[in-house]
Amino acid sequence: MARSDITGKRKLKAQNVSHSNIKTKRWQNINIQTRRVWVPELKRFVTLNLTTRDIRTIDKIGVTAYAKRHGAKL
User: I want to staple 12 with a disulfide (CB 3.0 to 4.6 A). Which of 28, 33, 48, 69 is the partner?
Assistant: First the structure.
């Protein structure tokens, strides 16, 4: 299943709402990307499944700080 390795985010159940206000079930998929991320503390690359929001935040604060924020181990 598509799931972020750090945050654990996955697809959500949602509803389509028509013009006549009829609601039908659907899935909201998340944008999962497989990325090799350099971890300076380990001095190696780690392959992770990340959402695009995860990637943007890792670019700002770093992968170890982001993993510590969410309680994930690399």
Answer: 28
Number of domains in the chain: 1
What CATH number has the domain bearing residue 46?
Answer: 2.30.170.40
| C-alpha separations of 44 from 14, 15, 41, 65 in Å | 39, 42, 8, 16
Q: Report mean pLDDT in 10-residue bins for the chain, 74 residues.
A: 93 97 97 96 96 96 95 90
Q: pTM for this one?
A: 0.82
> Cα–Cα–Cα angle for 44, 49, 54, nearest 5°?
90
Domain-located, residue 6: no
Tell me the residue range of the domain where 63 lies.
Answer: 12-70
